[in-house]
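The records we work with from here on pair a chain with its fold. These numbers are not coordinates but entries in a learned vocabulary of local backbone shapes. To see the layout at work, look at the sequence and tokens printed below:
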Amino acid sequence: MRVAVGGIFHESNTFFTRPTTFEEFTRRNTTRGPAILQRWQGTVSEIGGYIEEAHRQKVFLVPTLMVHGMPSGPISDIAFEQLVGELLERIAGVRGLEAVLLSFHGAMVTETLQDADGEVLRRVRDLVGPEVPIAATLDFHANTSPLMVAQADILVGGDTNPHLDYRERGRECVALLARGLRGEIAPRMALAKAPLMPNILRQRTAEGPMAALMERAHAAEAEPGMLAVSVAAGFAYADVECAGLSCVAMADGDLDRARAVADAIADRAWELRESFDAHPPRAKEAVALAIASGSGPIVLVDVGDNVGGGTPGDGTTLLSELLEQDARGALVVIADPGAVARAVAAGVRNDISLDVGGKTDEHHGPPVRVHGRVRLISDGMYTNRGPLRHGIAEDMGRTVVLHSRGLTIVLTEYKTPMWDLQQLRSLGIEPALQRIIAVKAAIAYRAAYEPIAAQLIEVDTPGLTAADVRRYSYRNVPRPIWPLDR
């Protein structure tokens, strides 16, 4: 069984108006041909799962193009056409093609396309025809669309948040594809959407309303004739027609059964809507709580500048408040290439005064003037060693560790989510020994920081991923929808 494998994986925050360029994709995590298998084999990723299960199922993977972009603003139309054009060209060049296997996020948007993942699937379908099966994995935060379901034969979404099951879902997708190619099953998919955008802080799958939905999904999967059930919380920071919580149910040859399961779970999500609300403290209160705590590390979660949700990563709200309240032993990471350049020019062991952060837009706080000493300059490269994305190499660009008034400020050229403790350990910083750590995140950071934290404090900070989505003006999201329309 010869299967083309590839994908374009991007979570697009439409409130971040600066388009994501082709160069931003090619600078990081873009691989072609055999290099895809070499780079991703053995990693905790959907592609790592593809490779593992392909060996078991005797599926021969033909690698094409894999693009894994950092969450950011919508992709420029030019970049999208370049990437999709190359993906299609490489798929077309596969001899004896029997199926296509693709890795998507499910919340990819371009300057003119609200459902870019669905559009890629449509173009792949046009290329390979109706008889060649197309299977794809989706992120837990996918804005799943009718077009995606119509163009694919198999869709498998993530079951965990934090996203610890990428590899397992990759294996599941390949197993289903192989069974379909052998004629053992006839997958039929149905999509149900709930008029609901859950608060990002209530999307953890180990507890609360999301845990209840996942329990129902897993129970349905165990029933005879059901193949897979995927619940997606959606990505509320994309103003698109397909926004909102969804369920894709897949049954063996029985579309009505799939529809019934998907509808039941979507209905249950609507019944639980009030449980998806959250009211975290503002920065002033949260920092005061952290300082008053008798033990550490205290993790302050900068929800409004969640790098994993597409923000710039240069928000200064918590930095400013930590300085204002004279916090000691605190650590903050800020993406600011200009500040990095100035600190590098100053050199290690030298003192410097510079404006840090707040330079991308007006949503994440103004630049903060800091006076400190350059303690370390690094190339910013490390490999994840924790449960999330284990084995995957990361690149923060040139990175500077600056000490200022009892704070440790880590300045990076490239924004990088705080998903792994190796990010700080690669700089000679032991996270478990810090008094306070500010992380620009929402849920994913928990995989790394929850085991070492004395306390987690989610903070209602301003920015393009604020917890309360009623702060944003939506034009395309279908209305009415909770919580915009109470």
The chain has two domains: 2-276, 283-466. The longest strand covers residues 368-378.
